[in-house]
Each structure stands twice: as structure tokens, then as C-alpha cells.
Amino acid sequence: MRREFRLAGAGGQGLITAAIILAAAAAEHTEYNAVQSQSYGPESRGGSSKADVIIADEEIDYPEVKNPDVLLVMTQEAFDKFAPGVRPGGTIIVDDTYVKDVPPVDANIMRYSISAKAKELGREIVANIVALGLLVGVTGIVPEDATLQSVLARVPKGTEELNEKAFLAGVQAAKEIV
Amino acid sequence: MNGSKPKLLQGNEACVEGAIAAGLKFFAGYPITPSTEIAELCAARLPQVGGKFLQMEDEIASMAAICGASLAGRKSMTATSGPGFSLKQENIGFAVEAEIPCVVVDVQRVGPSTGMPTSAAQGDVMQARWGTHGDHEIVVLSPSSVLEAYTLTVTAFNIAEELRTPVILLMDEMVGHLREKVVLPEKSELVVRDRAKPDLPPGQYKPYADYGDPAKIAPLAAFGEGYKYHVTGLTHGEDGFPTNNPQAGATQIKRINDKITYRKKDLPQAEELFTDDAEVFVFSFGGTARSAKKAVRDARAAGLKAGLIRPVTIWPFLEEPLLKAKAKKPKAVIVPEMNLGQIVRPVKRVIGDTCPVVGLNKLGGQYIEPDEILEAVKEAILRGSAS
After folding, report:
1. What are chain B's domains?
2. What is the complex's ipTM, to 2 decimals?
3. A100 CA: distance to closest CA in chain B (Å)
4. CB distance from A56 to chain B under 8 Å?
């Protein structure tokens, strides 16, 4: 088993954090191996940002994702750039708050207003955690409760409650979409 | 942070945890991508273990500060990337000449100059070897996984302390920023070497004693423990005071080189995979070796006899595994590296004209992919069979 995930959007949307939490949940709460890598520009806000996670039951040599099984995109630019590279028949999770133009690709496309939901919960900054809940709910790659533990261990002190709400909202959304 | 529980850890974080496990007590640095997490984590962790973190005004001062701290008896480290590594070279030479143990981490990024700050490269191979001037040996280790970033940092401190010399941990962005599942060794499993104390009283102690035996290195007295001696970058005698005596100068320079070459066999050697019956060898280090390993495994799965040599110590250069490969009359040695061809040069020197030595080079911060190496292996086998 080897599953590849790519989380892409803009710097500041927290996708590297979401990827770290996903990899940590797999590494620290399952038997699987996990690696996480990223690429980003010199700017900390606004530039493009991409984070990759590989979860496997074997040794992971090359850590970069080439054709992700699951792609999460939170900007139009990220969709345009990475959707064509998704493994045929893979899954694309689209934040339709920002991604409006979704031409057909050979993948299951799941739309949800991730950023809008986060805003409704209190702060858009937790959109990454809504997205993580959605991704884990849709794929079942790591147990939801283990992932929530990793969320709570890695978000800033004082934001646990909001992040938990955000994660559970994502998990709930997955149930509605699937 | 020891124990058998699996953790997701970044290469840079693992380096800091390894340093602390090895007894790091002083870090001075000037943060620079992609090494910044090392400084950040040292700032958080060192006060918890009775150590000190200093952010200096620049890289030159950081290197000077760790020399000073080490002379005061504390295990010391700094971390940087290419542009800062250039600046540190003068004081690295000082540490070589004055025989000051310390660890210098260089997490390589694209150069020359400020280059591409967030992108991976392996362009500092030759700078690590010859960045500072004058005849000197230097120990350079290159991890290719997060776990190795931890274990080799411990090893780097051990070598630095035992050989009284700076040790370079040459990482690249790929390993420095990679997060990976690791199970760190228990403290009891780690070998940590502490600095030998002088066995002679002040007055009789010679900080640069020459025993006429490369195995014997004078212990380094800590300033503040009653020993007063002279430390200089000038070529010096056994008491540490400068000398212009040609014979004394030559002896001293020879001695600080010999102490390292003598111990070359004790340095971390190469990891070898499928080398017994290999027809094509891939010689690769650091992050790129991960791609090479995958390529060699894929080649074997396709029935191609490829083997991997991954040097863990980069300098002094490990000839032994290549000489073994050479004796097998291989079809080619492929050398992938994220630069225009640096480690390929000593490989060519060792292999000579026994077989083609093929450089596989990539620039612009892009990783070399396993398939690109696999293609090179296939080509080499085809060409080798045709000739």
C-alpha cells in the first residue's frame, strides 16, 4: 500500500500545517510509514504553496509526490496546475469558495466550501483543519480520532476548541458528500 | 527526546535533538533558509538543558562564537546555508588550525550567492572540502534521512571532540525540510564521547603537544579551569605560540592533517546495496541517494544488475567501495547530484578509465527523480553490452 497526497493552495492557507498533521497522525498513531515534504516560495504569504504526504506500509525512498491519489486544492491556480497530474481515477477535493472553474478531469471531484465553512465557524484561518477533516473523512487513510489528537497536539495553545470544531465540521461534510 | 515511540520529525529538528543528545551546550547562529529551524529549535531547547543560544550579528561572528565557547569547554555548533557557509570559512580554517572541536551544519540550497533560498541543491560539496584555504583535511558527513540527521549529528560531535577539529554536517534542503517517521535510539544505545581532560598540571600542559604518533592528540584544556595557553591561527609550536621556524611549521601542519587521515577508517563508511554482482553502480549521497536507492531497487525488479554506493562520509573521500566496484569491471558508474558535477570528480579519479563515469546533474532546485537514474542505468547496460 502506498497512497500519495498533495495539498496545494496559497502561502498562509495553512496547507503545510495540515500536511504535517496528516503525516504525524499516520506516523504516530498507525503502523504505516509517512513522509511529508513541501515546496514554497521565499514569501510567507500569498505565493503558491504545496505540501506532499506519502503514507505507505513499506519504506519510502523518494519523498516527492508525482501523481497524487488525492489532491486537495484551495486556490484556482493550484487546481489548474495540479489537477492534470492526479492519478487517473483519483480524488480531487476542491474548496469551491475559491476554485470556481472546474473543467472535467479523470478523477472524482468533491466540492465543498471549505473556507466559507471556516469563516462561519469563527475564523477563516482554520480552513486548513476543515480541509483536513474532510480529507480524512473522505479517504479513511488514518482514523479520525487519531487525527484529531494530532490536530490538538500541533495547533497553537488556546485555539484547540476552534480547531476541534473545524476538524469535526470537515469530517461531517465528508459524510454528506460521499 | 529519546525513546522507542515513533515520531514525525523534520531533518533539521532531528539534527538539533541529536546535537542535544550528544551534549550540545552552545549554539551561535544567524538564521538562514533552509537551516532556520535548527536555530529556532536550539533557541527553545538549549535553555531546557542548561545550554545557551546566541543569535549573532552575522555568520562570521557565529563561527567565532562557537570557537570561543568550545575553548571554554562546551560542545558547540552553528548552522547555516550556502551564503553563510561562505562567510564562515575563515573561522572554520581558524578552528582547523587551532584544533577547536565544533560542528558546522550546512543545509545546502541553490547557489551561487543568495541563489534560490527555498530550493534544494548539493552545490557545496567542494566548498565543504576546500572552502577555507591552506592544506587541511576536513571531515564532512552527509545524512540522507531524518534518522541519519540525528545519528550523524551525534557522530559529528564525537569525531570533533576526539580529533579536535571542526566537523561539517552537509545536509541538503531535501533532508533538512523532510519530515519522516522515526524511532529515535534510546539514550543508552548512543555512544557519546566527551572531551579528554589534560592529565598534566598547568605549567607542564602543552595544548599542541606533538607525540610523533597520529593516534595521539593532545587533550584540550577548558579556559576557566586553571590552564592558560595561547590560541592562534598562526602556525604555532607545541605551546601554542606562533613560529616561523620552517621545520616546526611543517611539522605542525603535517600533524593536523595526519591525525584525520590516520582515523579515516573509523569514520562512517558507505552504505552498499546490491553491490556484490552489480554491473552498473550508482554513487550517490545525501537526499539524492533516496532517489538512487529507489532507482536501484526498480532496476533489480526489472532484472537489471544495478548497485548503490552511498558514502556517508563525503570527505575525506572513501576510495574503498569504489575500488571494490572497479575490480568488478563494471559497465558504468553513474553519479547523480544536484549540481553541475562535484563529487563525480574524485569518483573519476578512482575509477580512471576502467569504465565510463556518467554524471547525472540537475539544477534549479529540482530533485533528481528515480526514473531519471533508472533510465541512465538502462542506457549504461545497453551501451555496455554493445561494446
Report:
1. 1-268 (3.40.50.970), 270-386 (3.40.50.920)
2. 0.94
3. 30
4. no
